[in-house]
Amino acid sequence: MEKLIALLIAAPLLGAAVLLVGGRRLDRVGHWIGTLLSTASFVIGLVLFAGLLGRNAEHRTLIQHLWTWVPVESFQADVTFRLDQLSMTFVLLITGVGSLIHLYSVGYMAHDERRRRFFGYLNLFLAAMLLLVLADNYLLLYVGWEGVGLASYLLIGFWQHKPSAATAAKKAFLVNRVGDVGLSIAIMLLFTTFGTFAFGPVLDHAGSASEGKLTAIALMLLLAACGKSAQVPLQSWLGDAMEGPTPVSALIHAATMVTAGVYLIVRSAAVFNAAPDAQLVVTVVGAVTLLFGAIVGCAKDDIKKALAGSTMSQIGYMVLAAGLGPVGYVFAIMHLVTHGFFKAGLFLGAGSVMHGMNDEVDMRKYGGLRTYMPVTFVTFGLGYLAIIGFPGLSGFFSKDKIIEAAFAKGGTEGWILGGAALLGAAITAFYMTRVMLMTFFGEERWRSRPTRSPEAPSAEPAAEHQGEHAEPHPHESPKVMTIPMIVLAVGSVFGGAFFSVGDRFLHWLEPVTGHSEGDSPLSAATVTGATMVCLVAGVAIAWAQYGRKPVPAVAPRGSLLTRAARRDLYQDDLNHVVLVRGGEHLTRSLVYVDHTLVDGVVNGTAAGFGGLSGRLRRLQNGFARSYAVSMFGGAALLVAATLLMRAV
Amino acid sequence: MSAAAVHSLWTTAADPISKIDAPKIEYGQLSPTLIVVGAALVGVLIEAFVPRKGRYYAQVFVSAVALCAAFAAVVALAADGYGTTKAHIAAMGAVAVDGPALFLQGTILLAGLVGLFTFAERRLDPEAHGNRVDSFAAQAASVPGSDSEKAAIRAGFTTTEVFPLLLFAIAGMLVFPAANDLLTLFVALEVFSLPLYLLCAVARRKRLMSQEAAVKYFLLGAFASAFTLFGIALLYGYAGSVSYARIAQVVDGTVTNVDPALAGTMGNDALLLLGSALLVMGLLFKVGAVPFHMWTPDVYQGAPTPVTGFMAAATKVAAFGALLRLLYVVLPGLRWDWRPVMWAVAIITMLGGAIVAITQTDIKRLLAYSSIAHAGFILAGVIATSKDGVSSVLFYLAGYSFVTIGAFAVVALVRDAGGEATHLSKWAGLGRRSPLVAAVFAVFLLAFAGIPLTSGFAGKFAVFKAAADGGAVPLVVVGVLSSAIAAFFYIRVIVLMFFSEPRPEGPTVAVPSPLTTTAIAVGVAATLVLGVAPQYFLDLANQAGVFVR
């Protein structure tokens, strides 16, 4: 059965190769090749899953060794895959959601002439992401890590003719690079500490290393996770990444790639468990990000950016849970999976809305769409209920557990973290209700608009070729797009319950991540009750602001906080002041030193030799007699020196 | 003259001849030299008897065949073990047949063959009155600018005598590093020097400059020869013999049978020190070490470019070979006396060559100073006085000779109305017009600069390593610093070729015949092969690194 693991990666990799190398001949069938190979990978994943279920919980780790990759003395790295419960979960999420989004993209990208290339990149992403979660050592994981970074870069900038998309791709790449440096340093530290990269030996002996070293490794891994998962302080790229086509936002920047950081932390659980200081930092990063993302999500009028803020916030929950240690690992992954369903569904819904609205993304120009797009409305609505944690739906189960676990941290920290998580739940309810109301309810603000926003028309392919200023005709999307949305909506509704009944997910994942029940100061019922109160409060405030009153077509100035949130809490300004300006000053001073000191020395030396050369050159005057004198003098010196040597 | 005296002369002359043993000459082991000398003599006969039209082809053919045959003979001797186990001294103690001799002879023969190709090139100069001409004067004896010169050009004359001259020079160079007594050394020195003086004088263009170069070279060469000869005389006075082995014995104090007639002077150290210093000075003149280098730039610039290339490569190989043998076979016992002096010479040679090269504006002069700096680098290896020192110098010389001939062959290609355009300013932007030629020249310059993956790096590394192992670390430091200075002017030429705007009235690059193309291709190939995979050749040089005593 181990033999099948490589096929998981091989299928999409083959797809990427065929589609990217195949050229225009494949333009007509390329999208189906991509979808087929992605689905094939999913089917293989199901077969392996069935195989794992057939085994005892202790024997559910499969290892496939392919070849030795770097054999240099003690520096050994193999191409070896590890399929255990954790990677299996990711494989099913990646290939399952990935296949659905492939299918969706067939419709969404129908009018894009570079569709074949798009599917090639999507397959490349799947292959890299699978490599990331299946690798059995950190070095191979790094390959996958960089691979998804590349795919992300290519797909964010897919419409590279738009300067905004090209810039966003570059920004994502650069910010990720900071995290990647963290990962590479972590890998180097791991090697010097343990003498190997393989998960098995490293994680088994993690406790034997000094805590200082482990803290350093854990913090570097956290830096890597921050980059990939858009956590504070490396969060700035995610909002701009929405420049990519919407299926990309759904797959890469909501359901899968951005959760790689959570995977990394949970996979390295043994390292983090032995480094409590680093764990505390992880929880702080998670808590800060979950509030940061939620606040940003409240102020955005762009539907995709609002959802991006929400993604950041939800991953904050996961990171928070992962930082809590064995109490939270399982719930981090569970929330990751349920979030994969409902957030992908929400993004696909947003894409469907844009598809019907001439690629308009400004929610102030939506309104009352529920009658025009009933399927989108229902699926989006179910995703909405899931994310805010409506009782019985996915988010309710997974998020509630995280909040409980946060309180269980104990002490002041527990109260602060739990409070932040609760507050986040309230804000989530607020901003998601806001999105829902502005899009599907209220008056139809897209009708007879007196002025159109000065924004250049988005280049996303329009389903109907209308004049630029023509009024949109909202319509439901084709089946190829709605079916994935329906499937994901089903997952959003029942996933959480399915996982939680009888603690199915807990028992499944426990052998890998370990689990301990926390000692919560509050009873589970109290926490659930508090969460419900927060939820109702959030929804109510949103209703008061956007449901009862008409939504202004032009955004009001808003409060100080709103304005800050619209600017992503000044994240870019901060980066600009601290990094760009600081970097410029540093560069300038280095250039100054280079010009004056280094160049001075260099040029001085050069000038010195040049002058010497010019002077010596005059000795070469062209007269044979002078040359003969020089030779005679030389001979005399030679003889004298030889005799002198003897005398000495 | 009295009758008695006459009678005595008669009787002396009539003494039984049996008292003189017939010299035993190992013709087989001397065959490389003999083949070349024989071919040179045939070349003279060709000049005398073959009609003018056929001479060029006959000469080129004979020369090429002779050089190939001689090289084959060297290879056969080496394969036979004469470089290692069967190494011995042939021709009654006059000539050594050993590893260094065979290695250097092989190098000289290959350099000579490649040099021959550049000599035989006839497509670079525009045709004169329907006749293809080479780089040599139509009639060397005619006064520049005179009617007889014009007539010779009109008649399509060419100086085909250059080929036998080349062969004579090569023959002398073959003997030079193998000479095992001082008289053979001196004869070989003159045998290869005299043809070179002549060859320098026969340029087709800029003939006055060429003749001036030849006269300077001749005068200074004769001056240096006088020192050499004086040194030989003093050494004879010291040891009572011109044989290397015998002198070495006297230096070591292991000599047994002292000739009573020489007992007065024998073992007088003043004679030894003076003699060896003057002899070494003569050899340093040939390799172009500071302060005996002054002839180099003027002669390199004035001589016909093919001659310059050949001379720069082969003379250096031969002279360093002779210097090595002298220092390793004759004077090892005197090591503590000559080493400090040679240190000083090496240092001022490296620095002097590199520094003065910076301000040169003529490509041939630039390469001349570069060759001076390289002489300094090689001296660093010579001073190591170890087996590694010998083998590193052998390797360096092999790599350097191909780069040098190739570089001068490229210089001959870049031409304007006045012949070769050697002023550096005219090379600006050459890379835009003739990317291939410029790239090839860049490869040679990088090899000169000692950039990795070229033979220059491998050679320099070997030489410096040997020197450092031999305890000459300060010398290596100076060597590396000079390399840095030298890199400046090599890279400057590359920058000039590739990053400057071409001049509107810039030179053109002539399309050469396959001969020059071969010479350049061999140079590039040798540079890259010796640079990328030097190990085989280093091993070869290492095997050949032992002198027979």
Write the layout of secondary structure elements.
The complex is a heterodimer of chains A (648) and B (549).
Chain A: H1 4-22, H2 30-53, E1 62-72, E2 75-83, H3 85-108, H4 115-134, H5 138-156, H6 163-194, H7 199-204, H8 211-229, H9 236-240, H10 246-255, H11 260-267, H12 269-273, H13 276-299, H14 303-323, H15 329-356, H16 374-388, H17 394-408, H18 411-440, H19 479-500, H20 504-513, H21 524-547, H22 560-566, H23 571-617, H24 624-647
Antiparallel strand pairs in A: 1-2
Chain B: H1 3-13, H2 31-49, H3 52-79, E1 88-90, E2 95-97, H4 99-119, H5 147-154, H6 162-175, H7 182-200, H8 207-239, H9 244-252, H10 269-287, H11 295-302, H12 305-330, H13 335-358, H14 363-382, H15 387-411, E3 414-416, E4 419-420, H16 430-433, H17 435-449, H18 455-469, H19 473-499, E5 508-509, H20 514-532, H21 535-543
Antiparallel strand pairs in B: 1-2, 3-4, 3-5
Domain NADH:quinone oxidoreductase/Mrp antiporter transmembrane (chain B): 179-485
Catalytic activity (chain B): a quinone + NADH + 5 H(+)(in) = a quinol + NAD(+) + 4 H(+)(out)
Enzyme class (chain B): translocase
**Helix content range of the residues of chain B, please?**
55-70%
Proportion of strand residues of chain A: under 5%
Helix content of chain A: over 70%
Radius of gyration of chain A from the CA trace? 30 Å
Number of helices of chain B: 21
Number of DSSP-assigned strands of chain B: 5
Mean pLDDT of chain A: 89
Low-confidence stretches of chain A: 451-468
Low-confidence stretches of chain B: none
* Mean pLDDT across residues of chain B: 91
Number of individual domains of chain B: 1
Count of helix runs of chain A = 24
Quaternary state of the chains: heterodimer
Beta-strand residue percentage of chain B: under 5%
- Sheet of most strands of chain B: 3 strands, antiparallel
- The N- and C-terminal alpha carbons of chain A lie at a distance of 85 Å
Order of helices and strands of chain B: HHHEEHHHHHHHHHHHHEEHHHHEHH
Distance between the termini of chain B: 47 Å
| Secondary-structure-derived class of chain A | mainly alpha
